[in-house]
Each structure stands twice: as C-alpha cells, then as structure tokens.
Specification:
about 240 residues, seven-stranded mixed β-sheet, alpha/beta, binds zinc ion, 9 helices
C-alpha cells in the first residue's frame, strides 16, 4: 500500500490546521514548510494530541514532563510564527489508536478552525524504517485525522453532539502527509532553516543532546533536496499532498 502521486497544491489557502501526536513532531518534519506558509500570510494552528509524557532522555521527574513539553511546543511555535497551539486532553503518549473519540475530537477542532488544508502524519507505515515516522502514535493520528477529514467533519450526522454544540460541518480541501512512504512534493526551506532549528532547540527536553544544525537532520534535508533536483546545498522537506474535496 502506498500513496498516489501528489496533487497540484491549492493556491487560495487561508487557514491550515496541523494535527500531530506529540510535541516536536511538527518541528522535525514540517516546521520549515509551516514557516513559509506563515510568511505568506496563511493562518496556521497546531493541534497536539498528547503532551509527550513518554518522551525525554534524562532523569527529569516524569510527572513534570507534560507541562515542560507543552511549554516547549508553545515556544517552538512562536519561533515559527504560529500563535495558536491547542492540546487535546485525555490521551496518553504511546497509547494512541484511531478511536471514535479521537476522530470526534479532531473533527471538533476542524469544525472550529475551518482549515482549507490539514497537515498531519502519515497513516501509512514505512516498512524500510520502523522508527521515527512509523511510531504507532503517528500512524494512529494520521488515520484518525484522515477519518475526521472524511467523513466526520463534513457529515452533519457524524458525532451529532458537535452540531448540537454549534459546530457546523466543514469540508477540508487538501491534506499534506508528513513522514510517509515515497513523499513526492518537496518544499525548499533553506531560507527558513534557522527558524526550524530554533523551534527544535525549544524542545530542549528532547533535543538538548542532539547536533541539530550539522547532524543527521541537515544531511536528511540535503538528501531530500537533491532527490527533488534542487541545487546543491539546498535544504528541503517532503510530503504527499492529496485533494480531499
Ligand atoms: Zn512523535
């Protein structure tokens, strides 16, 4: 199973909702692209499903991790220029599945923010690389978000409590998947790379021990750019883009 070829991207996007499992997911895979959107005047909001309570690498007391990681994600968003960061309650890092409740909560966020475009993690596993993008929480959020795009957020009879709460149906027109197999829509983020690094450094509980500027991350972004035929030395992020009208 894989994605079809990416569709041409929409040119009239006003709002983008980014839906991811953990603090830092957006920033590793997509923050440069988000920075570019912010710079063109697009209103971007983040919806993070957990506070990353299973993350970290040192002896920080475990009960402090959720609050630390929430504030890190808010600082990372500020570095990119994103002002709205919302967290869902009631979901635990490492225990996500695409439940009806998760679909409902993401649908509520969609109906509230009314995005033209959704950015989320891939629901498709990359079999050649089980770590990172293929974390089960990432796959679960990609699947639940896809179900929220179609049919839940556009069907007035899905999750009737949403309509009762005044949340009218909404059609998301486009989805960008990060971290999936064979991404074929590449974005040159060289100019905004310093902001991506600043965002990643904001996640100090996860990244303080990493060489962000010169290590594997830069190597991967150079390789992504080269694969897309960009000039030498450019840095890129890659996605699969599908129309969902
Ligand atoms: Zn993650």
């Amino acid at each position: 199973m894989t994605f079809p070829a990416s569709a041409p991207t929409l040119s009239d996007v006003q709002r983008v909702l980014a839906v991811f499992a953990h603090p830092d997911d957006i920033d590793f895979g997509s923050a440069g692209t988000v920075a570019g959107w912010v710079d063109t005047g697009i209103d971007v909001a983040y919806l993070i499903v957990t506070r990353g309570d299973a993350g970290g690498f040192d002896d920080t007391p475990r009960d402090q991790i959720p609050a630390i990681r929430e504030s890190e994600q808010r600082a990372a968003a500020a570095a990119i220029g994103v002002k709205q960061v919302d967290f869902l309650d009631g979901y635990q890092d490492g225990r996500l599945t695409p439940t009806f409740e998760l679909r409902r909560d993401i649908s509520a966020a969609i109906r509230r923010f009314r995005p033209d475009r959704i950015l989320t993690s891939s629901p498709l596993r990359r079999w050649e690389r089980l770590s990172g993008p293929s974390h089960p929480d990432h796959l679960a959020v990609g699947e639940a978000t896809t179900c929220a795009i179609y049919p839940d957020s556009r069907n007035p009879f899905a999750h009737p409590e949403l309509l009762e709460a005044g949340l009218e149906p909404w059609v998301v027109r486009e989805v960008w998947y990060s971290g999936g197999p064979n991404p074929d829509h590449t974005v040159d983020v060289t100019e905004v790379f310093p902001r991506k690094i600043a965002a990643l450094r904001a996640h100090a509980s996860q990244t303080a021990h990493l060489d962000l500027d010169g290590g594997w991350l830069r190597d991967r972004m150079v390789a992504t750019a080269e694969l897309a035929g960009l000039p030498a030395g450019r840095l890129a992020e890659a996605f699969t883009v599908l129309r969902t009208e």
